[in-house]
Design a protein that fits this description.
Blueprint lengths: L4 H9 L9 E5 L3 E8 L2 E11 L5 H17 L7 E2 L8 E5 L2 E9 L11 H22 L21 H11 L3 H15 L8 E4 L8 E4 L2 E4 L6 E4 H13 L13 H18 L4 H4 L2 H20 L3 H12 L8
Antiparallel strand pairs: 1-2, 2-3, 3-6, 4-6, 5-6, 7-10, 8-9
Helix pairs in contact: 3-7, 4-5, 5-9, 6-7, 6-9, 9-10
Length: 326
């Protein structure tokens, strides 16, 4: 989605820079990330464009970014957020039935999964697991372990697993897939929910959102951070490891031996930072299944061009085929 010069002029002024100082870093589903140099430091300006009808959008971003800086202050490896000239973590412009949301963060000079040498891969997996364990350990010390911020419009929580579930359940048009969503909901209801198992999480710590830098795995892009079970983050990370080709959804998976070694390496590093009970390891395929159906629901239109792949994944979801035999 393009952002007009007029809007960019207004947004950049809030951070003491200008539209002409921006270079495009990359495009996302709902916006654009730019880089610019300020006082000798490279910074990232991320601009997200959404329909302006959701009154909770800005508050969600505000709480997510406050969480990022909470983590950064405790030396968790994350890309820190820089305030605007007004001292705000997030700025927004509401115009023409669209809301333009912007925030500024430090630029991480690092390598993503696909730029790594094979010789670095094992340590990257370890650092990735270690960083996620640190994130969850400190999440337990956050102001609340469950969703407390409510919408001024509806009075309902603006975060939480039920809100996420409802969003994707409504998005699913296939009745069989909707039945699978209902089944997942019942399984989730039965899970322990307390301050040791549930809290504010990244919610998409996949290989596209962690950089290998400073001998650490550094997390970026908390745009969908949410209150959920910690296992959601673990499963999301492992799902993206088990299926290395992110452009081919559930394409060629790692072979069993490689998958076992990689998952073990990741979980051992995680466990050293934030102990994980055997009960939750047994729930791994449940949370991997949740990741699979969520991505399928979100990405279905883009899968139509490959009917064989579309129906193969759909059948695995409906048949509740385990993601991988570990």
């Amino acid at each position: 989605m393009d952002i007009s010069d007029k809007i960019l002029d207004q947004l950049t002024a809030l951070y003491g820079t200008s539209r002409t100082a921006l270079s495009i870093l990359g495009y996302g589903l709902c916006g654009i990330a730019y880089t610019f140099v300020q006082e000798g430091n490279i910074k990232v300006l991320k601009c997200t464009v959404l329909p302006s009808g959701d009154a909770d959008t800005v508050e969600c971003f505000r709480e997510r970014l406050a969480f990022v800086n909470f983590l950064g202050e405790r030396e968790v490896p994350v890309a820190r957020i820089n305030s605007s000239l007004q001292g705000n973590l997030v700025e927004f412009i509401d115009e023409d039935q669209l809301i333009y949301i912007s925030y500024c963060m430090e630029f991480i000079e690092g390598k993503d999964y696909y730029a790594l040498k094979q010789s670095d891969m094992d340590d990257f997996i370890v650092q990735w697991g270690k960083s996620l364990g640190q994130l969850h350990r400190w999440s337990k010390a956050y102001t609340s372990w469950k969703e407390v911020t409510v919408s001024p419009i509806t009075g309902a929580p603006i975060f939480g697993w039920l809100k996420e579930w409802a969003t994707f359940y409504r998005m699913a048009e296939d009745e069989d897939i909707r039945e699978c969503w209902k089944d997942l909901k019942q399984q989730f209801i039965s899970l322990p929910l307390n301050g040791q198992t549930y809290g504010f999480i990244h919610n998409d710590p996949s290989k596209l959102n962690v950089l290998y830098a400073r001998n650490k795995g550094i997390f970026i892009d908390f745009d969908v951070a949410n209150y959920h079970w910690y296992m959601v983050d673990i499963a999301n990370a492992l799902y993206s490891i088990l299926f290395p080709d992110h452009k081919n959804y559930e394409g060629a998976a790692m072979n069993k031996e490689q998958a076992q070694a990689t998952v073990s390496r990741f979980l051992m590093a995680y466990d050293r930072e934030n102990g994980i009970d055997a009960y939750w390891i047994k729930q791994l395929n449940l949370f991997l299944s949740y990741r699979r159906i969520l991505l399928f629901t979100a990405m279905s239109p883009s899968l139509y061009s490959n009917p064989d792949n579309f129906h193969s994944i759909r059948n695995r979801i409906i048949g509740q085929t385990p993601i991988v035999d570990l």
